[in-house]
Design a protein that fits this description.
This protein is an alpha+beta fold. It has five domains: about 100 residues; about 80 residues, no CATH class; about 70 residues, no CATH class; about 45 residues; about 170 residues, 2-Layer Sandwich (Nucleotidyltransferase, domain 5). Helix content is about 50%, strand content about 10%. The chain has 22 helices and ten strands. Strands 1, 2, 3, 4, 5 and 6 form a six-stranded mixed beta sheet that branches. Strand 2 and strand 3 form a beta hairpin. Helix 10 runs antiparallel to helix 11. The two termini are about 75 Å apart. The relative contact order is 0.05.
């Protein structure tokens, strides 16, 4: 069934066109329909203007005749203007449809409320019903709602079972036996007053708890680690004193809420009223600290006061200076650094953290990482192709020297085809700035690129490779009893497996191994000899 007749739709469309297609103005004036329905009606109207064929939307769903509409509106106007009574007597329509009929046939006569009822009107209606001043029907008519709504308000405001019983005993329409019983009315009034007192007490308790939470948060501050539940006795006493003065409640009634005993509260209160024993000492400490131009710490301040004949412990001075923010301006101790400056001009950063390559052998990254096992330290130096993230070549040794890096680069360059001249990106380590490394790069046409000093993100591709490999091969594994040569063989087996058999998912899709252009060149061990024995290997195991 359609909710609105053709006449209602036509009226809404006319206003929609008049108000320059502003749906809000139409809905505000008529009280119907929705924005979507209004736009649909407007499209039907445009189609009628264009084709000359009337829309059958309203006639197709028409349910009530004009006589039925008029009869329902007349019954509403002549029987107390109660929508529920009209709908019950006539058997039709819904409250919304009846409201639209009244607005159409008798504008300004509708008493059906739309929108929420203010809380003050709710409480006033409930009080009048509970005291017997008005019945539910009369209070509902005064507010503009149904009597069942008023009874529901009464249940919500009373809240407990006793209130529900009162609501059930409320005299209904036509039942005047309980209305005339003064004892019943006095009982209902007494029950309502008790419930109101209980609600006021609960509201007061909630106000006190909220004040305690706010006060505790203000005392501890908002810095990280502040916990309102871990207040000192002095802070709890201050909190109780402030709340009792602000809200006008007895301080002893707050002791249990705050979590402090009565004796502790009065002890702290008495201590707070005593004069500060550190007031004179604090002024002397401030004067000495200021005269030193914030150079002296608590030890020198203690010696200065001691020379002036003031006997006080150094710890006491330290506590005063710390609590009042008297921190000396001291130059921090210089940490040891073996850095002796740049050994020469470093190449520019040509990558700028963009580690993507459209084809193999366009962009290489390299670095050296360390594996520490009970037998000693082992170093891995790989070349990673940024096209697929696979190692092109690698060397493994027991010393992070230039031979480790140079051997790896030479092996990687041996895989290049004619015309392939990749960019080799690294950090500013000395391995990548020695003459032999530069010679190999020039010989094979490699373009050098380096990141900033001490900036790991500038070589994130290599660091990410090390992170994945250590997570899969090294971390949470025991290498006790494994010799250096054994570990080197295990690491080389893993690198072969990583290159040839590992399912790669970092780029969003999985595949086995690298592209056909990417090859491996074995390993240079601690003795610098190429190891060609490991061409295939199972997944690593420790």
């Amino acid at each position: 069934m359609a909710k609105y007749t053709r006449e209602q739709r036509q009226r809404a469309v006319e206003l929609y066109v008049k108000y320059e297609c502003c749906a809000a103005d139409v809905i505000r004036e008529l009280g119907y329909p929705s924005r979507e329905a209004l736009r649909m009606w407007h499209r039907d109207w445009l189609d009628e203007q264009e084709t000359g064929v009337s829309s059958q939307r309203g006639e197709r769903y028409a349910r009530y005749t004009e006589e039925q509409k008029r009869a329902a509106v007349d019954h509403y106007l002549t029987h107390g203007r109660r929508a529920s009574r009209t709908m019950r007597q006539m058997g039709y329509p819904s409250k919304e449809v009846l409201a639209s009929w009244i607005d159409e046939l008798a504008p300004g006569e509708r008493r059906i409320r739309r929108g929420p009822v203010p809380g003050e009107l709710k409480r006033d209606a409930v009080l009048k019903v509970a005291s017997g001043e008005l019945s539910s029907r009369e209070a509902a008519e005064a507010v503009g709602v149904d009597s069942s709504v008023v009874r529901n308000w009464k249940r919500q405001l009373l809240g407990d079972a006793k209130g529900l019983m009162v609501a059930k005993r409320e005299p209904e329409r036509g039942d005047s036996s309980q209305q005339d019983d003064p004892d019943a009315l006095r009982g209902e009034i007494a029950t309502l007053r008790a419930d109101l007192e209980r609600l006021r007490a609960e509201q007061r308790a909630m106000e006190i708890r909220l004040a305690i939470m706010k006060g505790a948060a203000e005392l501890v501050g908002k810095e990280p680690g502040a916990d309102p539940d871990n207040l000192t006795s002095r802070e709890k006493t201050t909190l109780i004193k402030d709340i009792s003065e602000t809200l006008g409640v007895n301080a002893e009634s707050l002791l249990k809420e705050v979590g402090i005993t009565r004796s502790t509260y009065y002890y702290q209160l008495k201590a707070m009223r005593r004069p500060d024993k550190n007031a004179n000492l604090l002024s002397l400490v401030r004067e000495a600290f200021g005269s030193s131009r914030r150079r002296c710490g608590y030890k020198r301040i203690h010696l200065e006061l001691k020379s002036a004949g003031i006997i006080v412990s150094a710890k006491r001075i330290m506590r005063l200076m710390t609590s009042h923010g008297m921190v000396p301006v001291l130059k921090s101790a210089k940490r040891y650094s073996s850095y002796k400056g740049e050994i020469g001009g470093a190449p520019a950063n040509l990558v700028n953290r963009d580690f993507h390559a459209t084809a193999p052998n366009r962009l290489w990254v390299t670095d050296i990482t360390e594996f520490s096992i009970p037998a000693g330290k082992v170093y891995l130096s790989p070349v990673i192709d940024c096209h697929d993230g696979m190692p092109v070549a690698w060397t493994i040794g027991t010393s992070p020297d230039s031979a480790l890096a140079n051997g790896m680069l030479a092996d990687a360059c041996s895989t290049l085809k004619d015309g392939e001249k990749p960019i080799i990106h690294s950090d500013r380590g000395c391995h990548y700035r020695w003459p032999e490394w530069i010679r190999i790069c020039k010989e094979h046409g490699l373009t050098r690129s380096t990141g900033a000093k001490g900036c790991g993100p500038d070589n994130a591709a290599a660091e990410g490779f090390f992170g994945r490999s250590k997570q899969e091969f090294f971390h949470k594994r025991s290498f006790a009893g494994v010799s250096m040569d054994g570990f080197i063989n295990m690491l080389d087996d893993y690198m072969v497996w990583y290159r040839d058999r590992r399912i790669k998912t970092e780029s969003g899709h999985g595949h086995h191994g690298p592209s056909t252009q990417t090859q491996s060149c074995g390993m240079i061990g601690g003795d610098g000899i190429n190891d060609e024995s490991n061409k295939t290997a199972p997944p690593p195991s420790a």
